[in-house]
Design a protein that fits this description.
With about 270 residues, the protein is an alpha/beta fold. It is about 40% helix and about 15% strand. Helix 1 runs parallel beside helix 2. The termini are far apart. The protein binds nicotinamide-adenine-dinucleotide.
């Protein structure tokens, strides 16, 4: 059986750790050529990755896939443009943009939250996804569409990583919820603007996951219990749960899906 993403060219932001790393590995497993990009090539120390000392692009190339790494700040326009140019120079085009890089500054209400925390969160989580979408879609519009496995013409696909807190309010995360709400509605807006061009723009909205971002909460008894109590499924999510959903949205199986918010949350939002 052919790989679902055979020779498709993908960029994954925040690819060194957690969701980004699992997404890059999953896309490569389906045959995609993956441009990994993050602030640093090495994984964050707090992650749950089994082989944390090996960098994402090295895992892919060691297992026979094609991948490169380019350091870039997803919230800086010139960096994001360079990553898109790098993908095109290295692999000839760009088919899939996964805007995953994100930050979380912890639990606090708006009285306690600082302006710096708000600006930092919005800059990476909201502006970063706007920039990634802007430069990817600009490239999609420049290149010839490809014919997919279903015989359709495809210019490119964007998958944004949002959050359940972009769909509903979650206590003590004001800037984080605001930033993910921005991701959700930008995703819908872009889907409308580019549907006629056959550019898919979707988002995955994960619930609580075991990654470096959440480790400090999973290690404390009270917040560990809270995250499990809030999740109807008997475990919290993993980066691999998110990666499987992203792989689907990046594939031809999702040809007619656009402007969708795919929850991967163990039924959190089903209430
Ligand atoms: N962990 C969760 O429970 C959870 C839930 C829902 C959504 N998410 C989202 O998933 C995405 C990935 O989170 P994660 O849990 O893997 O977190 P993580 O902290 O484990 O990994 C995030 C990665 O993004 C990188 N990054 C941070 N700022 C960056 C920037 N400006 N430019 C480039 N790279 C940058 C980090 O270096 C890191 O490698 C984020 O958008 C996050 O908001 C996480």
């Amino acid at each position: 059986m052919a790989d679902k993403l055979d020779k498709r060219v993908a960029i994954v932001t925040g690819s060194s750790s957690g969701n980004g790393r699992a997404i890059a590995l999953a896309l490569a497993k389906e045959g995609a050529y993956v441009v990994c990009t993050d602030l640093k090539k090495g994984a964050l120390a707090g992650g749950y990755e089994k082989d944390i000392e090996v960098d994402t692009d090295d895992i892919i190339t060691r297992s026979g896939g094609k991948s490169t790494f380019l350091p870039a700040d997803a919230s800086k326009a010139c960096d994001v443009q360079k990553v898109v140019d790098h993908a095109v120079q290295t692999f000839g085009r760009l088919d899939i943009m996964v805007n995953n890089a994100g930050v979380f500054t912890g639990l606090h209400n708006i009285i306690e939250e600082t302006e710096e925390q708000y600006d930092f969160t919005m800059n990476v989580n909201a502006k970063g996804i706007w920039l990634g979408s802007k430069y990817a879609i600009t490239q999609f519009m420049k290149q010839e569409p490809i014919t997919t496995s279903t015989g359709a013409k495809l210019r490119g696909r964007v998958v944004n990583i949002a959050y359940i807190g972009g769909l509903v309010g979650l206590a003590l995360e004001p800037a984080y919820c605001a930033s993910k709400g921005a991701v959700v509605n930008l995703t819908r807006e872009l889907a409308l603007d580019f549907a006629a061009e056959r550019i898919n723009v979707n988002a995955v909205c994960p619930g609580f996951l075991a990654t470096a971002m959440v480790r400090s909460f999973l290690e404390k008894e009270d917040t560990n219990k809270l995250l499990h109590d809030l999740t109807p499924w008997p475990r919290v999510g993993s980066a691999e749960d998110v990666a499987r959903a992203v792989t689907f949205l990046a594939s031809d199986d999702a040809e007619w899906m656009t402007g969708s918010m795919l929850t991967v949350d163990g039924a959190f939002t089903a209430r």
